[in-house]
Every structure is written in C-alpha cells, then in structure tokens.
Amino acid sequence: SWKKTLTMAIKKRSRVPGVMITQYVEQIPLGKSTPDFTRKPMATTVQEGKKALFKAMVNGDPEPTVTWERNKGEVNDEEMYKTRYDERAREHILEMPNVKPDQSDTYKCFATNEYGVAVCTVTLKVVEGKKDTQYCANEYVVVTRKKQLPPPKEGEIDPKLWELLLSAPKKDYEKICFDFGVTDFRWMLKRLKQLKKEREDEQAKVVEKVENVKQIEVKPNGKAEFSVDMTLWDPNSEINLYKDGKLVPYGCDENSKPCLMKTGTKYVFSIKDPQPEDAGFYQLDVEEANILSTEFQVPAVEFIAKIKDAKAVESEDAIFQCVLSTPLNRITWSIEENSLDDGDKYEITVSEDKLIHTLRVKNCEMKDNGKYYAIAGITTSSASLTVEGGPCFNFNVDVHLLLAVAQTVVTIKVAVFFLLVIYFSIYMLISECYKNEGVRFISGLSDTVANVGERAELSCKLSSDNSEGCWYKNGKLVKDGVTIIKDGSCHRLVIDCCKKDDAAVYRFEAEGRKSEATLKIEDPPKIDSDALGEFTKPVIIKAGENAEWKLPFSGGEPITIHWYKNDDELSAGLYVKIETSATESQLRLTKCQRKDGGEVKIKLKNEFGTIEATSQLIVLDKPTPPQGPVDIMESAVTSVEFKWKPPKDSGGCPITSYLIERQQVGRNKWTNLGEIPGSNPTYKDSDVDPGRRYCYRIRAKNTEGVSDYLQTEDIPAGVLRNSTKVVSAFKDCINLAWCAPCDTGGTKIVGYNLEKNKKGTNYWNTKYAVKDVFEGAAYEFRVSAINLSGAGDPSIPSETVIARDPMMRPKFKDRNMKSFIVVRSGNTVRLNIHFEASPMPDVFWLKDGLPVPKHVTITNSDKGSQLLIPTSERSDSGIYTIIVKNIVGQESFNVEIRVTDDPKPPGVVELEQNTPGTVTLIWTPSPDEKRDDRLHYTISKRDSFKRTWRTVADNLYNHKFTVVNILPGREYDFRVFAKNDMGLSAPCVSPFKVGISENKTMNMQSPPSFIVPLKMRTAPQGYECCMSCAVKGDPAPRVTWYCNNMSLNTNPNYYISNICGVCSLLILRVGQKDNGEYKVVIENQLGTAECSMTLNVRGISMVQQSYFLS
C-alpha cells in the first residue's frame, strides 16, 4: 500500500471535507502540488444484485494515480471490481456490476503522486430485495396505550416512524421518512390515514381540539422545546411525559428539567441545557391517549467551520455557511427564537456529502438585520447580518411614458426638443451622483492561515486599475521581508517563507478606503524524512525478545504524543516502556510473544495539527499444530493415504517440513516414519497390514521449532476408499451411493453387500432395498465388495441419517391467490389456502392483527388450511392473515374480506341553487354510508332534447355536486345512485325539472361621467402644457372646454382633441394670460357632468434662458 513508500508524513487539510492529504516532502517545487479531491465519492446504498458505482475527481501536478482499497478484503477480482477513467467527465470510477451482501464495507480511494497522497473513505451498504409493502405496512399496529414500542426488525418499518408521522404535519412527512431511510412513502398514506383516524377517535375522549403540533428542536437559548395547542375536556386531566417508554417527572418552573409551561391553550415542554443522555423518543399523553410523539436526536457533531458575520446591500442576497464534522441530513436555522424554513425568503441547501449547510437570505431588507443561528444537535453557532442602504440616487425613466407624452405634441420639432431636455437633466443628475463616489473594494482581504516555512498570500481587488495603495502590518508600513505585487486592480502581498513573527493584522489602504485581515502562523508537528524512513521499516524479533522504536520530531509546543498497537492506545506498564523528551519519543516492548505482532503507530498532536507514522512488529515463533480433520484419500490392502490442513499460524516464517509418527491400535509404541516437505500436506503409508487399524501424529516444523502434534482417529487398512454416502433421505426411503475399491484383489468385482444398522443396536442388516425404515429413526450403512473369491471387509459406516422428508421452509402453492374478496352479507365465507412445508408447520389465523373470533372455524392439514364463516355479517369484514411456521422459517399472506350488501338509495335530492349554466344538487346520505367506507355516489342526467340518461359524475364521496354545461331552453331530470362493491342501489329521482329561461337583451345606455378627472398643474412660462381627462357615456357625450367660464372650443390658440373618450387640451406656449380655472363639461340626452382644475404659470429663470440660448 501507499504507506510502505512514505518518506514524509505531513498532514494537511483539504478544502473538501473528509479528505486527508499527506505530504511526502517539506518543500514542494513552484508550480507543483500534492494530490487533492475536487469531488470525492459518495456513500451508496444498493439493492443486492444491482450495480454500484463510486466516482471521484482528483487534481494535482503531476497527474495523480488513483487506486482503491477496502477494509475487509481486496479489490483485485476483475469480475467483481472494475476500475476505469472517463476522460470526458474526468472521473475515476470503481464499478461493481453485481453487488453481494459481503461487499458491504468501507472503501478507500487513494490519489498519489511523487509529492504526496490524498485519501478519503466511502461506505457501501448492500440491502436485500424489497419485501411486500402491504405486509410491512400491516406488520405493526401502533398501540397508543403501550409506551414501550417493539424494537425494529431488519427489513421492516420502524414503529417509531408511524408514531412520528401521526404527530407531524403533512409538510414534514418527506423529511421524517428520509431520516428513517424511506424514500417512497406514498404507499404508506392509506395505512397512515387509518391510524390517524383511530388516534383522533382516542384523543377525542380527553381533548376537544389539538392544533399546531411542533416537533422537538433546540432553540438559540440552549433549550430543546416541543409544543402543542390543545383544549382539554377536563382541565384536571393527568398529563404524562414518557421517554423511551418510561415515565419522566417534570416541573412547572423554568429551573426544572424538563419543564412544562402553559399559556392559554398552548403547552410548551422544554429541556434545559440538553445533554447526549437526554436523547430519546418522547411521548406526551393525556390520561391514556397519546397526543404527541417526537424523537430527540443528539448526534456527535461539531462545527469545523462556523458561520461568519455577513454584510449585504438592500435587495441583494446574504449567505451563511458552516461545515460539520459528521454528515447530517439537515440542521436548524433560526433568527432569534423563530426557526427558518426553505421558501421564498430563505433558501436552505445541503451539499452531497451532508457536511456543508448553507442559508441564503434573499432580497435583503433593513428588517432582516439581526443575529442568525445554526444549530446542529446541541451545538450552536451564531453570526450577525448587517444590511446597508442602496446607492444614493435611483432614477428610473419610463421611456414609453415619455413617448406617449411626446406623441401629444403637435410638431415633431417640439417633441424632439422635449425629449432632449428631459434626458439632459437625467444625465446631469446621474453624473453628479457618481462623481464623488471614488475608488472602492470589489473584494477585500480575507483572514489567512499558513504554516511555518510555507508561503502565504494576502490579496484584494479595487474598482480602479490606476489606484495605488500601501500595506501595513500591525499599523506600521510594510517595507522589508515581503513581496508586493500590483496586477491591474489586484494588489497582493506575498511572504515566501513564513516565520512566527509574521503573524499580525495586515491592512491595505488606497485613496481613503481600507481593508484588513489577520494572518495566523501555525507550527504543526514535523518529522525528519530520514528518521521517518528508518521508523517505517518492520521490526522483526523472536518470541521472548524486546522490540524498540525511536522517533525524533519538531513543532510548536506543547506536543501530545500517543503510541498505538493495532489501533489500541499503549500506556506505560510492566511490558511497555515509553520515554518522551521535547524532541524525541521512544517505545520499548519487552518479552514479546507471537500475539503481540501487528501495526505500531505514533501520533503527534498540537494545537495546529496532527501527524502520524506507522511501523510493523513481526514476532517469529514455532508454528501451531496442523489443522484437522484428517481426510482419508485411500485405504487399500497394503497402503493408507490421507491429508490434512496446514497450521493456522505458521509462526511468521514458512513451514519447512512435517514430522509423521504411527501407532498400531492396541499397542503403546509410536514409530517415527520420517519427515516430508512442507509444501504438500499429504502422506501415503505403504507399510500396513490389511484389516488393521492405525493412528498417526503429525507435527509442523519451521526455522523456529516444532509444533505440537495433531493426532488422527483410527484409520483401517484394506477397506473401501470412502464410506457410504447418503444422497437423499425421505420418511419411507433413503438413497445411497459409494465408490468402487481401488484394490479389486486381482479379479472382477461381481457385486456388493449392503448392510443397514439401526442407530443404537449392533445388528447389521444386508438387505439391498432400503425401504423398510421407520419415520424419525436414525440409520447407518456400510457396504462390502464381492469378487470370485468372496466378500471383502465392510466399509466405514456412513454418516448417521434420519428417515424423514427433507426440511422445507413453508411456501404457498397457489401463485394467483386473491388478496381481496367481496361476500354478500348472510352468505358463507370459505377461504382455502394450500401450502407445502416440512416438518409439519403450525398455522395461525389473525384478523386485523388479533386472533380470529370464536364463530370462525379453522381446519388445518399437512397440505393446507381452511377458514370458514357459515353465516357472514358486516362485522366480519377485515384483513385476515395466515401465518405458516416451522423450524425452518415462516411465511404469511393477507386477504381482505369485505362483507356487504346491496346499498340502500340516498335520501331526497334538492336543488340548492340555480345559476346560469350550472345546477348544484344536494342529497341526504344513504343509511349504509356509516357501515361501508367504500360506498360512494353516481349522478346521471337526462335533458328534454336527447331523452337518454347519461352519467355525469362517479366516485363521489360527498353529498353535493354542481352540474355544468346546462343549456338554456331545455328541461333536465337528475338521478342519484349509491354504489359499493356489490353494485348500484335504486335511484333517487329529483322531484323537479330544471328549466333555464332565455337570455334578455340589456340597455347599455348611461349618463356621462368622468373615468379620470383633470389634475392641478403648474407650468413654466414659455413651455407647452397639456391637460387631459377620460370620460364615458352612451350615447357619446359632447365635450366643451372652459377657461375662467369662457368657452375655448372655437379659440385657435388651443388644440382640443377627443380620441376614444380621452379628451386633451394643449397650450403650445404658456403665458401669464393662461392662468386661471379650466373646466370640462360633458353632456348627452341622459344627463350632464363637469370637472375643473387650476393652472398656475411660473416665470422662467435667467439660468434656463442662457441654457436654451446655448
């Protein structure tokens, strides 16, 4: 792995959370860089048999090499793991075509070049195929009177999920299901609706109303709160709080933990100063009715980067962002005591790795000023938002309005002059506004962190390329020891090799504007590359000897040093000696044994960073005994051959040979047969007597010594090579097979003798047809070969076999079983379920999760089960579940049986309203509606033109419907039917006929009136002036203009127009004589109306006169 080539171990932070960079060298050449991830692979959950993909994008110079590893195995199998590089997307991909459960693991991705390595981890979770969702939904029934919920089972819905959904508003369903790993919750809504109705019925016994249920969340004041608005029927009702099924006492003052505060009908429960042990599943009960369920989670999470103060200009967006140490689906954002939700005003986003959380405040206003909080678990981070006012001048010109005014001018010359004057005035105002703005910062300085000896850079950008500026360090002008670069509008200060005294507050000033930032110098632990290379070499010793490691280091004090062996921290003791100074640490392990071998690691840590170095300890010892059992490969007349497994632990060095000893059964002497090579754990003994039994001892040998022995069982010589093998067994028959002997005695085998022995007896039966067996009895078998000279010795007895059918998990034989059955009330319900299982299973029937009633007859056999209800009633409706279970497993199936009858017709149909083009009907519900939740209504219509009935509405679950497309001049009849699973009821016919009268013509004449009246105006002398108003009336009114009660309609000095009711009066050049009251009089045959205004004429200034002359 990459650790073996490590020459330097300097840990660095990556901008991508969860990525660790290890730098090999102290100084990286200019233009080169260590590897890093631009996008790391994401954790994946894949169904078994599907394809899994990990994708990563890396950068670095030179181009890094990407490799993959996993914690519990290798990724070398090319069929299971395929690696490739997508040049178009620049992605390194690890593909697993057909994932299996054993591939669930933590995978590592390494990006390596000559200057370092970047590593990140990613988790793959493989789940089994989806189960029947209908079965899962019915697996649990929420029991409100039991505070302790059943523990969740693998592959099934957590009962806590149902409880939380019952107490949450619909907008939170998706978030709650996502926390429990449920991505498709639509199938749960029907079950949830049923549970919610049951919960509301139970709550109605003790509370009148329940509103505004809020789940638990941590507030900025440090308290965890959840609340509910409820009105109790009895104010003295007992209110209980449970945590994980246990009653929790609470107080009514703010110093209690937990505390109940009541304001009117609002009940607020709070936990003061919450701690990790306060996490749990909380339930609020009134008497025995559950009102609210909520889960308080306290994840082990910290803020790696907290939110920072933000500034924004009005109508711009402000952004708060934080980085967590542990992935979370969401955190809580709040301002003061109010939580913020994703919507039009606030946008809340989370990165793909769930580590970076962002809040965007859109279109900032002055009222958005304040303190904002990010709350993760019980950890809080806060920052302030400052909203500044916009530019000093905002002038908005409606060009279309100017053109509309200009069009009212008589001559084109006057219109052009009018536009030039307005645009010149706008230009002068805007120029005056921005003339004194000066240079400003496009981007200011940012706080920077650098390590001792590394390069640091501070930069800012101005709005002008020609501006010069000065750099200051702690208020003093910077001259020496730094490099100052100006690139257009960008100004940079560069420190090539940072020292501790370079830490300061730096400021850049230009034309009265300034920006400052803090440079922080850190000194993380460092290890010399030569010492690190020597440390990483494996330490090899013999058992009982001592092992020692030394490592010099440097860095800012204080440095904390920890030694680990196989990830377990070491502390000084009898066999562990640790000596540490300011520049070196030493570890000494005494009297090491074989089990002490493994990875030895040192971790150096100070306030600026952490560095690690790893070595290996290898302890050599004699091997462990060879592994059994011994397999007999051949047992001939003159030879015996057998094999065994190598030792589990070779002692750290290869097995050189095996030592073999033999003993004849019945004697005490052991004979040494010699040594055989360690590469092949097999031995053939050719010096045996036929019919005798032998026992062997086997020892393993390496360079460190000889192991203890492995002793075999008695091995007979001159019998069949293998014992009789049981192929299959049933309760009335057992099938056998065996192999021919290797030594036939020089003649042809003409047959076999097969013997049977009932377990526990000494009588061997030689019958061939093994059918006379008793069910449940255990048997052994042996066989002997026959040639022309007679029968040979019998074989080794076979393994014990029991005469019974092979075990089988219960399964249903009918593939097309009905899951929904409708039966007419009073008829017989007969439900036959066929299954097969071995041994005989136990059969259970449930109705809605409870045992079936006594009047239901259950008949079971080894082939199936029958449910019989002789005379069914409506109360027999429900979901019936059959559970078939034996020692191998269990299987279940759900059938919904609905007992109903022909529906009764609805009541009288009445006309609620009669508006043009529509008719609204209302009727009395059918008497069967309360007993049949699937009953609905159908409406049909017949008009006097077609004379046929046509359905206009179906599947109506209310008692009101509006019929549209009602044509005038026709008569209509209506019928309403009740409908359920059995069919339609008798119709209920409306006792009326709807007739729509013909449309009538309307008189549109009206007296004159003003839509837009005249407005008071002030006009400069010498300019034109236009006044206008809008009028209406039928017939069109006659318009007369008056000035000081004198008619102007015949005066040629005024231009009067009337276009589509917009009346205008234009004075081309206003003079003092035009001062006065202007009046408009409109009249037609139905009446008269008038409107007036006053025109004020003011003199022209000398500045304006000179401007027009120029």
Core attributes:
mainly beta; 6-stranded antiparallel beta sheet; Immunoglobulin-like; membrane; cytoplasm; 86 strands; 1110 residues; 6-stranded mixed beta sheet; Ig-like_dom; Ig_I-set; single chain; 46% strand; 11 domains; Immunoglobulin like and fibronectin type III domain containing 1, tandem duplicate 2
* Structural class based on helices, strands and sheet pairing: mainly beta
Tally of separate helices: 8
**How is the biggest beta sheet arranged?**
6 strands, mixed
* Total number of beta strands: 86
The average pLDDT value, as a whole number, equals 82
End-to-end separation in angstroms reads: 86 Å
CATH superfamily of the largest domain: Immunoglobulins
Name the beta content range.
over 45%
Rounded to an integer in angstroms, the radius of gyration calculated over CA atoms is: 47 Å
Describe the structure.
With 1110 residues, the chain is mainly beta. It has 11 domains: 2-127, Immunoglobulins (Immunoglobulin-like, Sandwich); 154-296, Immunoglobulins (Immunoglobulin-like, Sandwich), CATH 2.60.40; 303-388, Immunoglobulin-like (Sandwich); 403-434; 441-522, Immunoglobulin-like (Sandwich), CATH 2.60.40.10; 529-620, Immunoglobulins (Immunoglobulin-like, Sandwich); 627-716, Sandwich (Immunoglobulin-like), CATH 2.60.40; 725-802, Immunoglobulin-like (Sandwich); and more. Strands 1, 2, 4, 6, 9 and 10 form a 6-stranded mixed beta sheet that branches. Strand 17 (280-286) and strand 18 form a beta hairpin. Helix 5 packs antiparallel against helix 6 (412-434). The model is unreliable at 1-8, 130-147 and 392-406 (pLDDT under 50).
